[in-house]
């Protein structure tokens, strides 16, 4: 009786295929759990993403991952609400379809930001500008100044200190070009708590403040 050739054994081929598939699954799962960039392609890919056009690195499945540039498809639809942060353009680092890392962004109302991103929003240290020329350098949390920072207005007025929810809150120093200076506690962008106001003529007023006014 003739012995079947090993190379023509259907069962052997099926077994090899199964082992290869299992090995690939193991490798893919390991890469996913390790956060590896196995799926990243270095070729420039152009794709639709979140109502815009993305050009850059993607995963095997077309998700932005790595360095890339995104532009909203219809900028005229940007919100006119000055308090609402609506993204129009982003260039920087992505991770699994989310802006994560260093980048630059333009928002509605000609607001601009350059710095760290996390969870798709400015988070960490960065530099922001408003259309009137106001600038902010410091810490951001979920798209708003929060932590320590410096804001400079077009007329030269300046604040250095603590921020919360986008406004001076906590201890800080505010100065104006005419020599006026306030050092102390702030609340929601105004004098609030104990502090000292120095007027242009050098006169100092120390006390407790509320909504920018001396109360005691």
Helix-strand string: HEEEEEEEEEEEEEEE
Largest sheet: 15 strands, antiparallel
- Count of alpha and pi helical runs: 1
Coarse shape: elongated
Average per-residue pLDDT, rounded, comes to 85
**Radius of gyration, taken over Cα atoms and rounded to an integer in Å:** 28 Å
Q: What is the share of helical residues?
A: 10-25%
Uncertain spans: 1-7, 33-40
- Indicate the multimeric state: single chain
Q: What fraction of residues sit in β-strands?
A: over 45%
Strand-pairing-aware structural class: mainly beta
Query: In what order do the strands lie side by side in the largest sheet?
Result: 1-2-3-4-5-6-7-8-9-10-11-12-13-14-15
Number of strands: 15
**Between the first and last Cα atoms, what is the distance in angstroms?**
111 Å
Tell me about this structure:
- The chain is mainly β.
- It contains one helix and 15 strands, in the order αβββββββββββββββ.
- The protein has one helix spanning 10-34, and strands spanning 41-49, 52-58, 64-72, 87-95, 98-107, 111-118, 121-129, 135-141, 144-152, 158-164, 167-175, 181-187, 190-198, 204-210, 213-214.
- A hairpin with a 5-residue loop joins strand 9 (144-152) and strand 10 (158-164).
- The protein is elongated.
- The N and C termini lie far apart (111 Å).
Keywords:
1 helix; disordered N terminus; elongated; 55% strand; mainly beta; 15 strands; 216 residues; 15-stranded antiparallel beta sheet
